[in-house]
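USER:
Try writing one entry.

ASSISTANT:
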Amino acid sequence: MTEALLDTSVVIAFADPREPTPDLTEFEATHVSSLTWHELTLGLHAARDIAEYRRRTQALTTLRSVFGAGLAYDDVCTAAADRLLARVVERGGILCAHTFDRMIAATAIANGMTLVTRNAADLRGFDGLLQVVER
């Protein structure tokens, strides 16, 4: 068994009653990045009205109580991101695409974790650097 870092898309699925709850039983522990909390906070401020803002705030509060503090994006993550971005350039990709996804992926690499996402296609081409599982 391994530890997993949950991408924002997976965390959101836990708050959305229309989505099936991702099966994470194969992992001995799951973690969230502080970047996920940041992305969800951005979503609060994109709410169209006060009712949606309140609903999103309640969902974020619940998710934070379930998953706890986020793993920090630090200098070790930056070094991992350097390796990811070098691969992007090597493959002729766009550096500024999927910025948060790549930063969260770098956090997984830096902490020796598998990244669990609902958008594995956004992280294609990182074989040998990152283990990705789609849920």
User: Anything to note?
Assistant: The chain has one domain: 2-134.
